[in-house]
């Protein structure tokens, strides 16, 4: 059918070729013409008046659809729950009344008026959920889909990904930094890929978006990446569904392997007209500061280091006595920072149209001086029934966000290079923050460049401005009863400007007398989707839903940077690059990709008891080799509502029971552009001081490059007990990713190091449990609990025939040389690799009798002792071993919500267990040296009189070694959110003519239990980098928030 | 209703024509390259580029070659701030088959060879000015010979790859070791051709390989093969030829960016600071971005390297420094001991990897010393043999060599002179290896007593053998 239609479209297209230029205009105009042709009325026979109310509280329910069975006649209730119906029928007739969240009612109307009571739906299985390219009754679903609870959506956050933390089993969210607007890394059921992307696909109102933070980075900025999703206002979100197994995700084919997050924004409802205002204001403060040496301790350390090479002390005892605590740089850099959010929305609808319009202003100051994130956004969702058969709609959002960040350049080699967060920590405590006249002191005798990290924070400009417009426009036409055609056009226009300026009084700008750069990046994505859906019920027993479609998406990106140095005046900052006397090499780049897809799905249900789903997608991607553009992704699922069987119906305690099975294959196309081609890179050479550009191939071309494919099997149970007061969802899954895109080493004698080939495989298997209980209900006091638990075991199965392990590059040269991560067959991704330590050498005799890392001559008492793992009497690289993985053994959350009359309370705990963090910041802070501050533990260092078995002696810049000393337990349990709310009752509401009014206070990150020694166990210095997860190299610290808020609806 | 059909049809068709072919606009693809003269020039520039740049590691002549040819000798050791244990292993002669520096140098040499192979194969297929075309191919041949000469000396038998792979099939990418004699045959063939290169260049072509460079490298090949007759003949061609070579008066001018490409520089790896390609070999001097923070990564192996210079030897103050001036603050930092100074660019100390000092690969002093050495081996310490070494000694203000030395005594004096002349110029290990004095000399250093006969060759990188089991390992190294 799909192919036939396509041919027909093609014919039509040829016919109307002349109109191609104005086709979009036509598309907009003609529906109005269509509207004007329809509008005839039926013969009046009987009038029906009525009212629909909630069966429990007798409140009217607006927007309920009342339909006469066997006809297409339907009306919706108004704001007072009333409806007025010119039926065209004679009494009696059967009314069908349905509304989301309530049980369906079927009743016979004998006359007018009628009062209809709707019972709130208790059985979740009757709900309708959003699935890929449509909706489905929850009872008929065969796949593993989690809906994010409302409580999670009400959290305060700058972006949607942070709302998913602890929201559903199998979704692991790690924020990379505490910088306002910064990104989070999300893994659904573990990571599948080594070199490809592992982030899930977001589908926002039907528009697929891969959240690649590189798309909002030009290279000019410096610091934590800006989160592309922070451009979307989280309060616009109505619901989030997380598709996890293949039956649910295969419809997204080549982008489904990492899971899919379906986001639906708020829509208007028939017969309502609401104005809502929501606001909150809060204060944020740092959760924890690092223990560092004070001035006295640091001066003593410096003397000890000098003594270790036989040099004279630099501080006398009198000088040390006068130092005291010295400067607390952390205290100077961190602040209590305000956050505020305001939102105004208008929603409503009449017989024929629904709308939701909202505006949002969000302003979050960071806890580090001079850091901030602001967002201004607008949303307009509109839908209109042009006729009973034709519907059009628009979902759109436009936002401007601006982020001022601390320059945290994780790519730079050392802690002392311009990373403002680590500069705060490493600056010596004996250096005063301000001079005697109250200005920032720029004199630091221990660095080669005079600078002050606080002054840097305040004066370095590091700004990212992002404009984003995301929208789609669609028309849906009912061709025949049950057969609908839908065409949508969408666009995601993202443009970013980054500005950087460091003046001559800053660490980065000193040597070059000021440095400025600007960068622009635009990414424009276009989408066209054409789907046909057919719904058919045969004999009230067979329920059939068929979907077929063709979609095509194209994205183009462009970026450019420019910069200059050496400024006479700092007044123009980055706005006058021509004022710099020395220019930096400008850069520019461009790319594009396209994806053409055919998709199909058949849902069949027998009596809503036995349900089958078969889906498939064929994706053609530009990113793959010439011979492998197309990939095919099938899936099948089955579910059985066993509770409907007689033998279980008799078991009183079981109110619902569903068993699910699914299998399928999905893909991953996130490998970047042009990977199959042999691209050339510039390789330059100075001929007699004239720089000449040369070109050489980076790699061999691989026309056979194809998709990574993930096979996934899922078995699940949904169980409701005791009238569904206890709901349990249990899933077990097995995923195996084959044809992994891996840069495999090839003989270096070819002149090339690696070749990207489809080799290798990774598996994930796991268990997910979700439990929701209503502990106390029915009275004035209610108590609900939900528990989420997920465990995932990840393992590398193969890395190709030529290797069993490799050290992936870490995007930082200081850490890279330590090779902290090993990807090894049989071990999980993100395995840390290094020496095991065995305390400190206490005596020369101990050194003589033990294997040593350095030569025995160079090893002194007080040096660290390492374990000779392979027992060969030497400490070599062969003694490095598995030190644990950055992947948690399990993750979970625990939510309790209570209500008593008008008061509600939510307590949300969330945590992870068993993951390791490589605390590279602490490692760097334990490299004692003459110029930078050290971790407080160094005060208890080994000396002949203090035979520490934990902290080594003071030497000048000892060589860092990758060892278990810096692999820390990253497990944590966090009181993530506490909300106490009060909802006002009728009297006050009437007085202010409001429908609803609620005020609340909330605290986030109130308490954290962890053994982790860094700022926060939720850390990812290298953000979305797949192979360098769980490394802490001086990220922006996390914070706790206290806030008050208000929601009012008129 | 028909209109709606039409509309939907139009809408769906509008976007259904996305092409799936990749036509990159921001990168050049190999298949589109080597079509014009400019492409040919850029292809050869990339071969030169391998001398001075590397995407991830310190480049070939930006410290990498020094790891194998100086760090493993009695000249250099790894300083306390050398983080990489592989560097320390080279310093203590405990390196194994998995040493990453050994692997990186192997990779860099073969990367250069690969780029030269592509140029040699592709450039003749482009039609443009035949003289320039021939010159570019010969430049690539000179560079290919330079890379293979390092490979064959460091590893012995090595894979002899002369063409770019045409497939990514792993088996087709494997090449086994060829006998060293075959590799030398190829080197001599390439250099013999390259002798037709221009004698000199002007303007922005200065720095390209010349006829004199090809002859000097050929001289070095003959000397290494102990083919003294051909060596003497080749040295005479250079000394008496129309090349204008001579010793610069001031030894320091050899390592000064203001006097780069002088009459003594026969072939250099070209560096430039501030916008050009700076040499990260500043690391061989000190960690300048943190004045006074730490000692340099590369330090003298022991005091012998310093003590071999007499007080009046003008080379000593160029080879070492004991103090430096911070160019921003003017503060003079005095170090407690001496460090290597040839590549320390005093003007850009605050910016790392920005030394603009060229690395001399071949220079005229080397020609003179090789001439003296070959003559002495052929017919003893003749007056001609003395003339070469004495020119070098007199420039250094150390006076003529004691006259009337025996052949053996002259040989020893000559070896000692070479050590003094070429500290940190990637010569020491090659000299010790070809003269059979590696173990004797290196074992004198207290921290390097592990040196043994196996160290006359480096191990084939284990990663290469893992991929291609057909590669054999050098004697004394276990996998």
UniProtKB/TrEMBL annotation, chain A:
Membrane topology label: Multi-pass membrane protein
Keyword Transport appears in the UniProt entry: yes
Record domain TonB-dependent receptor plug: where: 138-260
Leader sequence segment: 1-36
Compartment(s) of residence: Cell outer membrane
Any Pfam family: CarbopepD_reg_2
Keyword annotations from UniProtKB, A to Z: Cell outer membrane, Membrane, Receptor, Signal, TonB box, Transmembrane, Transmembrane beta strand, Transport
Domain of life of the organism encoding this protein: Bacteria
PROSITE patterns (UniProt xref): TONB_DEPENDENT_REC_3
InterPro entries per UniProt: Beta-barrel_TonB (IPR000531), Beta-barrel_TonB_sf (IPR036942), CarboxyPept-like_regulatory (IPR008969), Plug_dom (IPR012910), Plug_dom_sf (IPR037066), TonB-dep_OMP_SusC/RagA (IPR023996), TonB-dep_OMP_SusC/RagA_CS (IPR023997), TonB-dep_rcpt-like (IPR039426)
The TonB-dependent receptor-like beta-barrel domain, residue ranges: 353-1006
Entry's family note: Belongs to the TonB-dependent receptor family.
The protein's name: TonB-dependent receptor
Organism in which the protein naturally occurs: Mucilaginibacter dorajii
From TrEMBL, chain B:
InterPro entries: SusD-like_N (IPR033985), SusD_RagB_dom (IPR012944), TPR-like_helical_dom_sf (IPR011990)
Subcellular localization, as worded in the UniProt entry: Cell outer membrane
Pfam families according to UniProt: SusD-like_3, SusD_RagB
Keywords: Cell outer membrane, Membrane, Signal
Domain RagB/SusD: 308-477
Ranges for domain SusD-like N-terminal: 65-223
Family: Belongs to the SusD family.
Protein name: RagB/SusD family nutrient uptake outer membrane protein
Species, as recorded: Mucilaginibacter dorajii
Organism phylogeny: Bacteria, Pseudomonadati, Bacteroidota, Sphingobacteriia, Sphingobacteriales
């Amino acid at each position: 059918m799909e192919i036939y239609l396509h041919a027909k479209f093609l014919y039509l297209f040829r016919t109307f070729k002349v109109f191609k230029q104005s086709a979009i205009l036509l598309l907009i105009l003609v529906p109005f013409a269509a509207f004007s042709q329809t509008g005839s009325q039926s013969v009046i026979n009987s009038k029906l008046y009525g009212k629909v109310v909630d069966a429990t509280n007798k409140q009217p329910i607006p927007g309920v659809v009342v339909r006469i069975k066997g006809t297409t006649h339907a009306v919706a209730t108004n704001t007072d729950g009333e409806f007025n119906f010119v039926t065209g029928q004679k009494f009696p007739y059967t009314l069908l009344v349905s509304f989301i969240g309530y049980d369906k009612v079927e009743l016979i109307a004998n006359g007018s008026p009628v009062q209809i009571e709707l019972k709130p739906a208790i059985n979740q299985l009757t709900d309708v959920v959003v699935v890929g390219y449509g909706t489905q009754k929850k009872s008929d679903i065969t796949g593993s889909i989690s809906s994010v609870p409302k409580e999670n959506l009400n959290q305060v956050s700058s972006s949607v990904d942070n709302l998913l933390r602890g929201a559903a089993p199998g979704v692991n969210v790690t924020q990379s930094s505490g910088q306002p607007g910064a990104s989070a890394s999300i893994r659904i059921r573990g990571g599948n890929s080594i070199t490809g992307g592992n982030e899930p696909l977001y589908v926002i109102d039907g528009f697929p978006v891969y959240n690649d933070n590189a798309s909002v980075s030009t290279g000019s900025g410096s610091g934590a990446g800006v989160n592309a999703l922070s451009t979307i206002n989280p309060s616009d979100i109505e619901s989030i569904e997380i598709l996890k197994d293949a039956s649910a995700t295969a419809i997204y084919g080549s982008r489904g392997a990492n899971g899919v997050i379906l986001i639906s924004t708020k829509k208007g409802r028939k017969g309502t007209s609401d104005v809502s205002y929501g606001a909150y204001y809060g204060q944020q403060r740092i959760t924890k500061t690092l223990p560092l040496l004070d001035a006295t301790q640091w001066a003593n350390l410096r003397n000890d280091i000098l003594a270790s090479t036989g040099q004279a002390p630099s501080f006398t005892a009198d000088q040390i006595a006068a130092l005291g605590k010295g400067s607390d740089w952390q205290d100077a850099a961190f602040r209590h920072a305000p956050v505020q959010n305001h939102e105004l929305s208008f929603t409503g609808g009449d017989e024929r149209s629904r709308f939701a319009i909202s505006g949002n202003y969000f302003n979050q100051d960071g806890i580090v001086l001079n850091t901030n994130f602001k967002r201004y956004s607008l949303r307009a969702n509109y839908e209109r029934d042009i006729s009973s058969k034709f519907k059009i709609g628009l979902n759109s959002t436009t936002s401007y966000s601006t982020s001022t960040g601390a320059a945290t350049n994780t790519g730079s080699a050392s802690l002392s290079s311009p990373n403002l967060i680590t500069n705060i920590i490493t600056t010596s405590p004996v250096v005063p923050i301000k001079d005697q006249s109250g200005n920032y002191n720029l004199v630091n005798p221990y660095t080669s460049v005079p600078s002050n990290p606080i002054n840097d924070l305040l004066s370095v400009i590091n700004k990212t401005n992002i404009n984003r417009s995301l929208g789609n426009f669609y028309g849906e036409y009912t061709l025949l009863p049950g057969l609908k055609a839908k065409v949508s056009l969408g666009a995601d226009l993202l443009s970013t400007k980054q500005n950087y300026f460091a003046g001559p009084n800053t660490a980065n700008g000193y040597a070059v007398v000021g440095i400025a750069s600007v960068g622009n990046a635009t990414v424009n994505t276009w989408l066209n989707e054409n789907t046909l859906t057919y719904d058919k019920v045969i004999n009230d027993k067979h329920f059939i839903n068929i979907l077929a479609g063709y979609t095509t998406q194209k994205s183009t990106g462009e970026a450019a940077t420019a910069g200059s140095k050496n400024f006479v005046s700092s007044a123009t900052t980055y706005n006058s690059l021509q004022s710099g006397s020395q220019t930096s090499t400008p850069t520019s780049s461009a790319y594009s990709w396209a994806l053409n897809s055919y998709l199909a799905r058949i849902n069949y249900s027998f009596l809503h008891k036995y349900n089958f789903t078969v889906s498939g997608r064929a994706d053609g991607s530009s990113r793959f080799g010439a011979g492998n553009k197309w990939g095919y992704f099938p899936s099948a699922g089955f579910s059985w509502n066993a509770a409907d069987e007689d033998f279980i119906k008799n078991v009183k305690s079981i109110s619902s029971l569903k068993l699910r099975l699914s299998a399928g294959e999905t893909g991953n196309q996130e490998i970047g552009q042009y990977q199959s081609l042999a691209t050339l890179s510039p390789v330059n050479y100075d001929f007699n001081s004239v720089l000449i550009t040369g070109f050489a191939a980076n790699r061999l071309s691989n026309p056979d490059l194809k998709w990574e494919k993930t096979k996934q099997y899922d078995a699940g149970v949904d169980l409701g007990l005791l009238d569904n007061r206890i709901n349990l969802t249990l899933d077990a899954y097995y995923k195996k990713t084959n044809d992994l895109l891996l840069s495999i080493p090839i003989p270096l004698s070819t002149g090339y190091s690696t070749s990207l080939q489809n080799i290798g495989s990774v598996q994930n298997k796991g268990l997910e449990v979700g439990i929701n209980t209503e502990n106390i209900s029915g009275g004035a006091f209610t108590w609900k609990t939900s528990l989420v638990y997920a465990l995932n075991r990840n393992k590398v199965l193969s890395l190709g025939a030529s290797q069993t392990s490799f050290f992936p590059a870490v995007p930082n040269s200081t850490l890279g040389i330590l090779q902290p991560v090993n990807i090894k067959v049989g071990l999980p991704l993100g395995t840390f690799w290094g020496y095991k330590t065995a305390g400190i050498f206490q005596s020369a005799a101990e050194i003589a009798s033990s294997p040593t890392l350095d030569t025995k001559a160079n090893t002194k008492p007080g040096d660290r002792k390492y374990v000779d793992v392979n027992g060969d009497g030497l400490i070599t690289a062969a003694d490095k071993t598995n030190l644990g993985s950055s992947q948690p053994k399990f993750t979970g959350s625990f939510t309790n919500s209570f209500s008593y009359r008008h008061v509600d309370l939510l307590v949300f705990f969330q945590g992870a267990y068993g993951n390791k963090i490589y605390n590279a910041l602490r490692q760097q802070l334990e490299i004692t040296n003459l110029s930078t501050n050290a971790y407080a533990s160094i005060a208890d260092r080994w000396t002949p009189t203090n035979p520490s078995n934990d902290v080594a002696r003071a030497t000048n810049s000892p060589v860092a070694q990758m060892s278990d000393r810096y692999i820390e337990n990253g497990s944590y349990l966090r009181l993530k959110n506490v909300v106490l709310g009060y909802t006002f009752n009728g009297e006050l509401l009437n007085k202010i003519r409001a429908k609803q009014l609620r005020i609340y206070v909330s605290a986030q990150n109130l308490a954290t239990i962890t053994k982790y020694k860094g700022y926060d166990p939720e850390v990812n210095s290298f953000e979305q980098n797949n192979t360098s997860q769980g490394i802490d190299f001086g990220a922006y610290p996390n914070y706790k928030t206290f806030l008050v808020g208000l929601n009012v609806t008129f | 209703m028909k209109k709606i059909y039409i509309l939907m049809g139009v809408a769906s068709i509008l976007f259904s024509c996305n092409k799936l072919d990749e036509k990159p606009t921001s990168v050049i693809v190999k298949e589109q390259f080597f079509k014009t003269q400019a492409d040919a020039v850029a292809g050869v520039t990339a071969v030169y580029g391998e001398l001075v740049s590397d995407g991830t590691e310190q480049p070939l002549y930006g410290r990498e070659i020094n790891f194998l040819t100086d760090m493993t000798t009695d000249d250099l050791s790894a300083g306390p701030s050398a983080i990489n244990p592989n560097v320390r292993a080279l310093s203590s002669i405990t390196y194994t088959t998995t040493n990453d520096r050994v692997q990186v140098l192997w990779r860099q040499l073969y990367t250069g060879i690969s780029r030269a192979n592509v140029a040699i194969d592709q450039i003749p297929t482009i039609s443009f000015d035949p003289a320039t075309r021939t010159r570019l191919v010969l430049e690539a041949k000179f560079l290919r010979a330079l890379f293979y000469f390092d490979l064959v000396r460091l590893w012995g038998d090595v894979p002899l790859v002369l063409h770019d792979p045409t497939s990514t099939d792993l088996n087709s990418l494997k090449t086994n070791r060829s006998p060293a004699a075959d590799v030398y045959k190829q080197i001599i063939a390439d250099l013999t051709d390259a002798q037709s290169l221009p004698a000199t260049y002007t303007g922005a072509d200065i720095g390209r390989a010349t006829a004199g460079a090809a002859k000097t490298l050929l001289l070095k090949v003959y000397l290494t093969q102990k083919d003294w007759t051909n060596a003497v003949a080749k040295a005479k061609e250079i000394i008496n030829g129309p090349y204008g070579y001579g010793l610069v008066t001031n030894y320091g001018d050899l390592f000064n960016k203001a006097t780069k490409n002088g009459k003594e520089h026969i072939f250099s790896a070209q560096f430039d600071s501030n916008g050009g390609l700076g040499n990260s070999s500043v690391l061989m001097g000190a960690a300048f971005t943190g004045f006074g923070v730490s000692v340099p990564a590369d330090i003298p192996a022991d005091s012998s390297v310093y003590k071999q210079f007499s007080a009046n030897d003008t080379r000593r103050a160029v080879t070492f420094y004991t103090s430096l001036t911070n160019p921003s603050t003017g503060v003079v930092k005095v170090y407690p001991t001496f460090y290597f100074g040839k590549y320390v660019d005093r003007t850009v100390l605050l910016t790392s990897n920005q030394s603009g000092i060229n690395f001399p690969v071949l220079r005229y002093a080397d020609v003179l010393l090789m001439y003296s050495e070959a003559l002495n081996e052929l017919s003893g310490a003749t007056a001609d043999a003395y003339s070469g070494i004495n020119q070098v000694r007199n420039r250094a203000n150390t006076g003529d060599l004691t006259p009337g030395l025996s052949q053996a005594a002259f040989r020893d004096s000559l070896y000692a002179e070479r050590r003094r002349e070429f500290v940190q110029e990637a010569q020491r290990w090659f000299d010790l290896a070809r003269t059979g004095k590696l173990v004797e000399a290196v074992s004198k250093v207290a921290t390097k007593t592990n040196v043994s006969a196996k160290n006359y060759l480096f191990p084939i990188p284990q990663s290469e053998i893992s991929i291609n089991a057909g590669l054999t390992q050098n004697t004394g190294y276990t996998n």
